[in-house]
C-alpha cells in the first residue's frame, strides 16, 4: 500500500511539473553526455599516446657538406666514416636503445621524393643536400633525453630530434578540448542541480497540504520526502539514459559511420565499443544518484520535518 502511494505521488508530481521535469532531463542528459565524452576523450588521448609513442623514433641527423656553412654544430665539416661508426657503436651499447637504423642520404632523398615529389620545391632538392641519420627505437620513449644528452653536440651530429614533439601539439589540442568539455559539463551540472532543487521545491509547495496532513498523522520524514526524491531520481535516470544513447550514437556516427573517421584516419587507433559501454553504468549511476541527493538536501531544508 505504501509503495502504491509513493508511486502515485511520483506520477502526480511529474505531471504537475512537466515542463520543469523536461528541463531537468535535458540538462542532466547534456551534462552527463559531456561528462562521458570527456572521459572518452581522455581515454582516446591515452590510447593514441600509447599507440604512437611506441612507434616514434629518436632521429640523430648527421652533418653533410652543406651544413658546415649554415649550422654551427657542423663547423668542423661533414661527418666522417669513423664518426658514423663510433656513433652507431655507442648507440648499440646503450641499454635504453632497442633498434638502430642508419638512413643514408640517398635513402632520405628517396623517401622525400615519395612524400613531396609533386611539390615545386621537390625539384630543387638534390641527394647531396639530404642528411644521413640514425633512426633510434627506444625501449622507453620517455628516456629520449638520455640519447639527446649523449649525442647532442658531438662531432658530426647536426641535431637530435624526438619525433614525439610532432605529436605533442595534437595531444595538447585534444587535451584542451577535453578541458573545455569538462568546463561546459560543470556549468551544465550546476544548471541541472539548480533546476532539480527548484523543481523539488515547487513540487513540495504545490503539495504542502498533503505533506501537512501526513505530518499530523505521524508520517516519518523519510516517508514524506520519498516521493519527491524519487521524482528527481526518475528524471535524472531518464537524463542518464538519454546521455548514454547520445554517447552510443555519437561513437557510431563519428567513428564507424557518418563521418567514418576510422576509415578516413586509418593511422589513428580509435577507442572501441567496450570503452564506451564501460562508461555507461557510471553515467546512469550519476544520473540516478545526483538528483536524488540534491532533492534530499533541498527537502531537509525546505520541509523541515
TrEMBL record:
UniProt-listed Pfam families: FtsX (PF02687), FtsX_ECD (PF18075)
Assigned keywords, A-Z: Cell cycle, Cell division, Cell membrane, Membrane, Transmembrane, Transmembrane helix
Transcription regulation among keywords: no
Its membrane topology: Multi-pass membrane protein
Keyword Transmembrane helix: yes
Transmembrane region(s): 21-41, 179-200, 232-255, 275-299
Domain FtsX extracellular: 56-160
Residue span(s) of domain ABC3 transporter permease C-terminal: 182-301
Compartments, record wording: Cell membrane
Quaternary structure and partners: Forms a membrane-associated complex with FtsE.
Function: Part of the ABC transporter FtsEX involved in cellular division.
Family to which this protein belongs: Belongs to the ABC-4 integral membrane protein family. FtsX subfamily.
Name of the protein: Cell division protein FtsX
Species for this entry: Streptomyces peucetius
Amino acid at each position: 500500500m505504501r509503495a502504491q502511494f509513493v508511486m502515485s505521488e511520483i506520477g502526480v508530481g511529474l505531471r504537475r511539473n512537466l515542463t520543469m521535469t523536461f528541463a531537468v532531463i535535458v540538462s542532466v542528459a547534456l551534462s552527463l553526455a559531456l561528462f562521458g565524452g570527456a572521459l572518452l576523450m581522455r581515454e582516446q588521448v591515452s590510447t593514441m599516446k600509447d599507440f604512437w609513442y611506441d612507434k616514434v623514433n629518436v632521429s640523430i641527423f648527421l652533418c653533410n657538406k652543406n651544413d658546415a656553412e649554415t649550422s654551427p654544430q657542423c663547423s668542423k665539416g661533414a661527418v666522417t666514416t669513423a664518426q658514423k661508426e663510433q656513433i652507431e657503436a655507442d648507440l648499440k651499447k646503450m641499454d635504453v636503445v632497442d633498434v638502430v637504423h642508419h638512413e643514408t642520404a640517398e635513402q632520405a632523398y628517396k623517401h622525400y621524393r615519395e612524400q613531396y615529389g609533386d611539390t615545386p620545391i621537390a625539384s630543387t632538392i638534390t641527394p647531396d643536400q639530404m642528411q644521413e641519420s640514425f633512426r633510434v627505437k627506444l625501449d622507453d620513449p620517455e628516456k629520449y633525453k638520455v640519447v639527446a644528452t649523449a649525442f647532442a653536440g658531438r662531432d658530426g651530429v647536426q641535431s637530435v630530434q624526438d619525433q614525439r614533439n610532432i605529436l605533442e601539439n595534437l595531444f595538447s589540442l585534444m587535451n584542451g578540448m577535453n578541458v573545455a568539455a569538462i568546463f561546459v559539463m560543470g556549468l551544465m551540472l550546476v544548471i541541472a542541480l539548480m533546476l532539480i532543487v527548484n523543481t523539488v521545491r515547487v513540487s513540495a509547495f504545490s503539495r504542502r497540504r498533503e505533506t501537512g496532513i501526513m505530518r499530523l498523522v505521524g508520517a516519518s520524514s523519510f516517508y514524506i520526502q520519498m516521493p519527491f526524491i524519487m521524482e528527481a531520481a526518475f528524471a535524472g535516470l531518464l537524463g542518464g539514459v538519454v546521455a548514454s544513447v547520445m554517447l552510443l550514437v555519437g561513437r557510431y556516427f563519428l567513428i564507424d559511420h557518418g563521418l567514418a573517421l576510422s576509415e578516413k584516419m586509418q593511422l589513428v587507433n580509435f577507442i572501441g565499443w567496450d570503452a564506451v559501454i564501460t562508461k555507461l553504468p557510471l553515467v546512469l549511476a550519476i544520473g540516478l544518484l545526483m538528483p536524488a541527493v540534491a532533492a534530499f538536501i533541498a527537502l531537509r531544508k525546505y520541509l523541515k520535518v
